[in-house]
C-alpha cells in the first residue's frame, strides 16, 4: 500500500549538484512532488517534497539520501507559523488557498495552522503584518 510523506531536505554545499532526486525516482520507485526548492550550485539548499511509495521503498530511499549527507526533517516544513508572534488578526485567512490557516473556534477567534494542509504557496508570508508566517529558506 502506497503512503505519502512530506519532508524537508537540507543539502549541504558539497551535495547540491548530485542527482539525488533522480535516484529516488529511478532506483527506489518513488513519486516525488516538489512543493518548493532553493538549491544553488556551490551553496546550501532546501527542498520541500512529498514522497509517495511503498513504506519499505521510502525508508530505503531516505537511507540513500542520508548517506549522501542530506539532512531529512519530517517535522519541520519550509513554512513556519510562530504562534507567539501571531496576534490572530486574520489577515492571512483570505490568502490561504487550502485553509491551512483557519479559525476553528469562533469563540476564541484564534488562527490555527495545519501543516498537513499547507502547500507552501507563501501567500501568508507576504500578507502577515507581524511576521508570524515565515519561510526557513
Kindly describe this structure.
- This protein has 137 residues and is of the alpha+beta class.
- Helices cover 20% and strands 32% of the residues.
- The strands form 3 sheets. A 4-stranded antiparallel beta sheet has the order 2-3-1-4. The protein has a two-stranded antiparallel sheet with strand order 5-8.
- A hairpin with a 5-residue loop joins strand 2 and strand 3 (45-54).
- Helix 1 (20-28) packs antiparallel against helix 2 (55-67).
- The longest helix has 13 residues, at 55-67.
- The radius of gyration is 17 Å and the shape is elongated.
- The model has no long low-confidence stretch (mean pLDDT 93).
Write the topology of this structure.
Layout: E1 2-11, H1 20-28, E2 31-39, E3 45-54, H2 55-67, E4 71-73, E5 79-81, E6 101-103, E7 111-113, H3 123-127, E8 133-135
Antiparallel strand pairs: 1-3, 1-4, 2-3, 5-8, 6-7
Helix pairs in contact: 1-2
- Strand pairing plus helix content: what structural class? alpha+beta
Number of helices: 3
Mean pLDDT: 93
Helix content: 10-25%
Sheet with the most strands, sense and barrel status: 4 strands, antiparallel
Q: What order do the strands of the largest sheet run in, or round the barrel if closed?
A: 2-3-1-4
SS strand fraction: 25-35%
Instruction: Name the overall outline.
Output: elongated
- Summarize the helix and strand pattern as letters: EHEEHEEEEHE
Distance between the termini: 33 Å
Number of strands: 8
Cα-atom Rg, whole angstroms? Answer: 17 Å
- Spans of at least 5 consecutive residues whose pLDDT stays below 50 are none
Amino acid at each position: 500500500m502506497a503512503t505519502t510523506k512530506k519532508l524537508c531536505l537540507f543539502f549541504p554545499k558539497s551535495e547540491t549538484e548530485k542527482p539525488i532526486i533522480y535516484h529516488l525516482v529511478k532506483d527506489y520507485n518513488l513519486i516525488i512532488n516538489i512543493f518548493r526548492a532553493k538549491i544553488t550550485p556551490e551553496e546550501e539548499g532546501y527542498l520541500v517534497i512529498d514522497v509517495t511509495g511503498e513504506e519499505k521503498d521510502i525508508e530505503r530511499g531516505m537511507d540513500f539520501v542520508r548517506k549522501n549527507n542530506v539532512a531529512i526533517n519530517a517535522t519541520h516544513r519550509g513554512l513556519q507559523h510562530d504562534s507567539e508572534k501571531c496576534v490572530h488578526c486574520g489577515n492571512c485567512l483570505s490568502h490561504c488557498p487550502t485553509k491551512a490557516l483557519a479559525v476553528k473556534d469562533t469563540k476564541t477567534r484564534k488562527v490555527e495552522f495545519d501543516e498537513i494542509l499547507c502547500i507552501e504557496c507563501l501567500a501568508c508570508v507576504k500578507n502577515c503584518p507581524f511576521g508570524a508566517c515565515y519561510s526557513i529558506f
